[in-house]
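Justification of computing resources. Each target in the renewal requires a structure prediction run like the one illustrated here; the chain below, 294 residues long, is used simply to show the kind of job we budget for.
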Amino acid sequence: MLKNFENREGWIWLDGEFVEWNAAKTHIISQGLHYASAVFEGERAYNGKIFKSIEHTNRFFKSAKTIGIKIPYSEDEINKAKDNLLKKMNFENCYVRPFAWRGSNIMGLSTKKSNVHVSIAAWDDWTTYYKLEDMKEGLSLITSPWKRPPPDSIPFEAKASGPYIICTLSKSFAEEKGYNEALMLDYRGYVAEATSSNIFLIHDNEIHTPIPDCFLNGITRQTVIQMLKQKGFNLIERYIKPDELSKFEEVFLTGTAAEITPVKSIDSINFKTGDNSKTFQFMKDYRKLVTNTN
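Resulting structure tokens:
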């Protein structure tokens, strides 16, 4: 069972220092809390090494810049802090969460003089984002009533806290209906993504995935695309209509926490899963890739 995040043993890197987990606090009057003025990353460590740590840190800083946050540390300092935290926690395989937010020295929508806090936490009980039995059998998805907004309405290229309220609402909608996940369409009605994962669809030797022009182009997504191309698959990025879903044999999701996770159904449409599926082989290939990275 997942432990309570408020009460754990260990350490969190907070504003340049290691603080005991239970003592890592921020004030309730905070721009980050009240106005979602925050950015974050989700990373995974395998065998003591964070997969694509530099790329994640680079995106962390780009996200911060996009919403006007100036992180008071260099990228190199953040990379070293992540590595030192894993050593201090004695973690080999874990999830890592860098986080930056505007603090409490001022309140209101003006951010001109706001201060910035940065933290890094890690935990080792997210071995999988979904339940193991769901990952084996495949996830059930339902189309969410909430859509990804147009790109001129949110900073979609930033991994920022604010836009995730749509994902939270979609996830809650799916779970209340008895599904594992939600399929999110974009503002035009095209297939976009799941609540925290990108989506891929398989037809013969072709693998289709939506164009990330209004949602985050995940680092895992980019990694999987490269992996599949190297294996000789025809990777097609295009706009996908919901009424095309029945034409595909398999569907899978990708994300740092989800890795590669098969989908068994979307609404009333069923897809192939199991040991003889292409997705099952991709899961093994991806796991080999992330655990053997130098």
